Amino acid sequence: MAGKHGSNEVSFEILVSDGGAASTGFASNYITKINDVVVNREGVEATPFGVVDETYNIGVMKKRDPLVISGFYDDTTTTGPDAVLNIGRITHTAPRSCTLTLCSGMTVSGTVWIEKYTRTLEVGNYHGYEASLRFTGTVTEA
């Protein structure tokens, strides 16, 4: 029977700043949700005129949906999500190295652009954040 895995095996790292030397980032304890990790190769319709059945060519480019992470908001530390991901207050002119460890050491790593950063404030709940990260270039799954 296949093993079952849980959230205790997941970790996430991103460089604290653009071009940072150390591959450290805010700790996974700020993250409570990571969206689906999607990779696809889109098909292009290749049906010639006069043919009734559709045919497709599969693209050679791998496309990835943005990696969306969210969790507890913290603006008081230099390594919390607001200090690392808030593109409204940080300089973000170069992609950053990023590694997501899924389970049993399986990783997805590459460089990302921070596309969007949102703070969510709600009475009766902890304040939260959400960041959309777009992979650029080669992404390694190992």
Q: Can you put this structure into words, describing what you see?
A:
With 142 residues, the protein is mainly beta. 4% of the residues lie in helices and 43% in strands. The protein has 1 helix and 10 strands, in the order E-E-E-E-E-E-E-H-E-E-E. Strands 1-8-9-10-7-2 form a 6-stranded antiparallel sheet. A hairpin with a 2-residue loop joins strand 8 and strand 9. The radius of gyration is 19 Å and the shape is elongated. The two termini are 22 Å apart.
Give me the count of strands: 10
Span between N and C termini? Answer: 22 Å
Beta strand %: 35-45%
Biggest sheet strand line-up: 1-8-9-10-7-2
Compact summary:
With 142 residues, this protein is mostly beta strands. The protein has one helix at residues 81-85; strands spanning 11-14, 31-34, 39-40, 43-45, 56-58, 63-64, 67-72, 96-103, 106-120, 128-141. The chain is built from one helix and ten strands; from the N terminus they run E-E-E-E-E-E-E-H-E-E-E.
